[in-house]
Amino acid sequence: MVKAYLVNHTHWDREWYFTTEDALVLSEQLFTEVLDELQKDKAANFCLDGQSSIVDEYVEIHPEKLTCIKELVAEGRLFIGPWYTQTDGLLPDAESIIRNLVIGINDTKKYYGEPMMVGYLPDTFGFNAQLPTLLNQVGIDSFIFWRGTDYDKQLKSLYFRWRGLSDKQVIAVNFPFGYFTAQITPESKQKMNQFVEERFDKAVDFAETHGDNRDVLMPSGIDQMNIVKNIDKTVQELNKLSRHDISISSYPDFISILREKKDLPVYKGELRTPKYARVHRTIGSVRHEIKRKNFQLEQKVLKRVEPLTVIAHKVGLDIGNGLLIHLWKKLLQCQAHDTLGGSVTDDVAVDIFHRFKEGNEIADGIENMVKKKLAEYLHLDNNQVLLFNTLPYDEVSVDRTIKVLVPSKNIRIEGMRDAVIENSKYFPERHHILMMTPRGREFTDEPEYFELSIRGKVDMPALGYKVFNIKKTDVALPEISYSKASSSASITSGEQTLEFSKGAISLKNSLGEFHNILELVDSANDGDTYDYSPLAGDTEQSLPFQKAVCAVGDKDHPSLIIYGSASLPKELSDRKSSDPKYGELKYELQIEFDENGILNSHLAIDNDVLSHRLRLKFNPEIKSNKIIAGIQAGYTESANQAIPNDWEKHFDEKPVNIFDFDKTLTLSDGQSHFTFWGAGQKEYEHRDDSLYVTLMATTSQLGKANLAWRPGRASGDTTNQGHVMIPTPLAEELGKNKFDFAFELKAESFDMTRTNQLTQRWLNPSISYQKQSLNLFINRLDNKIWETEENPVIPKELSLLKLDPKLNVSAIYPAYSDEKTYLVRIQNMTNLSQPVPNDFLKKALSVNALEKPIAQKPTIDPFDLASFKIRY
User: Fold this and answer.
1) What is the pLDDT of residues 312-330, one digit of tens each?
2) How far apart are the C-alpha atoms of 158 and 174, rounded to whole Å?
3) In whole angstroms, what is the distance from residue 259 CA to residue 42 CA?
4) Given the DSSP bridges, would you call strands 626-631 and 411-413 parallel, antiparallel or unpaired?
5) Backbone angles phi, psi at 502, to 5 degrees
6) Do 584 and 576 touch, CB atoms closer than 8 A?
7) CA Rg, the chain, in Å?
8) What average pLDDT does this structure show over 479-505?
9) By CB count within 10 A, which of 202, 419, 710, 819 is most buried?
């Protein structure tokens, strides 16, 4: 007889086709009933979906329930955490996933009691291969999930040991039929015999036969589902009717049972196969602006705000952790699977963008505060510029951009070499300007001035700052201008030449000439906010470029701007109409060589076309069937898999060879390689020796039925009984759209360490500040950050921490547990053990991501992470 362990839970999307505020209204009734039932029935327990944020929001409107919640958590009958929000498993940065756990665990401990230390993600659309490694960072050794498995090809058991690339592992538990497998409703209780025979026992039998499992987990709950009342009596009734032995259990208790099993099979790799459930393999391109804004805010927090805060703490300026955590929560609220995926209504999308706006305001405000206060501490004047380096590596002759306000372009920046004005804005003289002085109100004239963006080469200390002086000269700084538009143009850097001619972009280097190295391609999208879907009879077409201009005045960074436009069928119906209407697609592609020979690119699209997919197509002529894709804290190799002609009989959706990545893609044949860097692009396809990167896939519907690659019901419940179709005009992403990326084609084999260093440099921001009085709105809060009477004395130049650039530092931030220390997290993004310098280990304490001390090791395992706490 099989032992079935019944776990009562609710699944709680914070938003979907309803808003977060709608979900709060639903929790008002449901969570209260859950607490009441748990107090009445001592045999019952309940899981609140593994995320603390929904409990926070409930307690905010029901503070009187806090004591009850604490008591039930202490009794082990109410389970909260470990996540703050239920993260998407493929799209966020590795650090975002770790911080989601850290904040969720810390908050649960602080406010409610011990968190449920189980990596519980019951409805996420697939999982990256490094999730076991990331869960281990906070001491979690288990994972419970639904989607992404194939028991014919991947493994034979529902319960297994899932190893990350680092070989760190978790006990994994799969619900092949979902978190609602044993959903007990009032109707189920009325028809218990039918429920047991047609649903419950069949699910137990499947779990038994797929792995010879004698202990089986049966989740009972669904979206916004209430607690099962009188659950002990319900289980007694189940036992009378079932062929199996059923008992009330919890997720932690079931994991404890599996920990005792020594023969669980082992699996290594991502979980993203749509065998038993949809994983929405093309959701990575839906509502691209959400992905882009998420990437930008992640990088702003990790590369600017947190390291700046550490530097600020070192010199006596304290920015509270509460503000930083509040910022992280704004970001994490945008990273749940429906939210970051974009499978939401337009009302919810508006809320998401508003949270990004709030997060950016907090981040920019913190940066503004740090920069201005440090400029005051240093007693800088308007002829000095403060420049920061937020990476723990010395920088020698690196390109940085500073922004200054000056009365004339006849200047030079001492210590900056090869300086050139990238952008210039003129402000004319103003008269009768109000001033507040010790004598009261006075009026003066304000002189004319320029706002300049100046790029040049500088030397910078590791994790610190340096002051540069602005000097007047007799000649103006050189300034970038552009040639007249032409049908052909080219730029050269070293052995490389990028040429635009006859509408094509070509690259020449030591490997040869690569015609059409980069194309812009477009096709119809018959899909929805979950998936791209091809339109029958439609073919992907290359879009034309018409003219180009060259930048003049910056010999170190030659750049080309290529312009194009295309008339495309306006709507899906026009793709098949004999009298179609057309929309205009205008695009501007700027490509620039950087100091490493990488081609930095910025693409601006003015979109007036509905329901289409736009992709980059690269043609590097490298013969290889594998792509090396950057993922969270590692690299994986992916190769296209054969798809059976009768795939509909075997899969819930077509297992198309479209994959997700994080930051980099590389195609290599061993002698040469092509690498792409993406700033928020998440989806790629490798076909016919070409690499396609999706930019956007626009749509007008939340969910549609019977897609070419996704037959049957509509995702998003829009074709369920009583539901309606939900238009999503904002998901058409009309108007201005922007994309940043970079690429290189090099006559060298792929090297992980080199790629990691280039990625760090590519993402490393220019952060500068000039204390001036000409325009107090260049930095938004400048006019409200008042100088204090007593400022600390701080050094004119500072370096807080210096490491080997081969060490890939993923985060530097003030410790959550001790205001006198800060955390440094290092990712070993290679397949070899990586030594940690002895001098660093002498001053650093090895901890996990929760800042608990762990055994010190002189090396970091391949594809693993290590956290260190350092005293200021």
Assistant:
1) 999 999 999 999 999 999 9
2) 5
3) 27
4) unpaired
5) 55, 40
6) no
7) 29
8) 96
9) 710
C-alpha dihedral, 129 to 135 to 140 to 144, nearest 10° = -50
Contact 527, 573 (CB under 8 A): no
CA pair distance 336, 115, nearest whole angstrom: 19
- Domain(s) labelled CATH 1.20.1270.50 in the chain stretch across 285-377
Q: Which DSSP state fits 859? A: E
Task: Give the C-alpha separation, 223 to 503, whole Å.
Answer: 52
The answer regarding whether domain 815-871 maps to CATH 2.60.40 reads: yes
Q: From CA 439, how far away is CA 437, in angstroms rounded?
A: 5
Say how far apart CA 342 and CA 344 lie, in whole Å. Answer: 5
CA distance 261 to 239: 25
Chain-centre distance for alpha carbon 597: 27
**Per-residue pLDDT for 556 more than 90?**
no
Q: Report the distance separating Cα 364 and Cα 368, nearest Å.
A: 6
Number of C-alpha atoms within 13 angstroms, CB side, residue 182?
A: 31
Q: What confidence score (pLDDT) does residue 1 get?
A: 87
For the chain, where do the domains classified as CATH 3.20.110.10 start and end? 3-275
pLDDT band for position 56 (cuts 50, 70, 90): very high
Distance in angstroms (rounded) separating the CA atoms of residues 686 and 688: 7
Bridge partners for 421 per DSSP: 454, 479
Spatial distance between the Cα atoms of 20 and 333, rounded to a whole number of angstroms: 10
Question: Is residue 670 classed exposed, middle or buried when 0-12, 13-18 and 19+ CB atoms within 10 A define those classes?
Answer: exposed
Burial of 812 (0-12, 13-18, 19+ CB in 10 A): buried
pLDDT at 872 over 80: yes
Higher pLDDT: 781 or 499? It is 499
* Architecture label for domain 3-275: Alpha-Beta Barrel (3.20)
DSSP designation for 752 = H
Cα 51 to the chain's mean position, in Å?
A: 18
**Tokens 């090099």 appear where?**
746
The CA distance from 340 to 660, in Å, is 14
Cβ atoms within 10 Å of 482's Cβ, excluding its own = 14
pLDDT tens-digit readout, 83-133 = 999 999 999 999 999 999 999 999 999 999 999 999 999 999 999 999 999
CATH 2.60.40 domain range(s) in the chain = 384-481+765-784, 815-871
384-481+765-784: CATH topology is: Immunoglobulin-like (2.60.40)
Q: What is 285-377's CATH superfamily?
A: Glycoside hydrolase family 38, central domain (1.20.1270.50)
Token pair for 444: 């003066």
- Closest by Cα among 854, 864, 856, 815 to 838: 856
CB-based contacts of 506-513 (< 8 A; 24+ apart in sequence): 507/599, 507/745, 509/745, 509/746, 509/747, 510/747, 511/672, 511/745, 511/747
Place of tokens 């007990």: 184
Question: What is the per-residue pLDDT for 614?
Answer: 98
DSSP H helices, 41-163, are: 53-61, 66-74, 94-111, 131-136
CA dist 726 → 529, 547, 623, 716 (Å): 10, 41, 44, 9
Do residues 406 and 437 touch, judged by C-beta distance below 8 A? no
- What is the C-alpha to C-alpha distance for residues 104 and 294, in angstroms, rounded to an integer? 19
Give the architecture (CATH level 2) of 494-763.
Distorted Sandwich (2.70)
C-alpha count within 13 angstroms, C-beta hemisphere, residue 826 = 28
Each residue's pLDDT tens digit, 648-681: 999 999 999 999 999 999 999 999 999 999 999 9
pLDDT at residue 773, rounded to an integer: 85
Residue 761 CA to residue 750 CA, distance in Å, equals 17
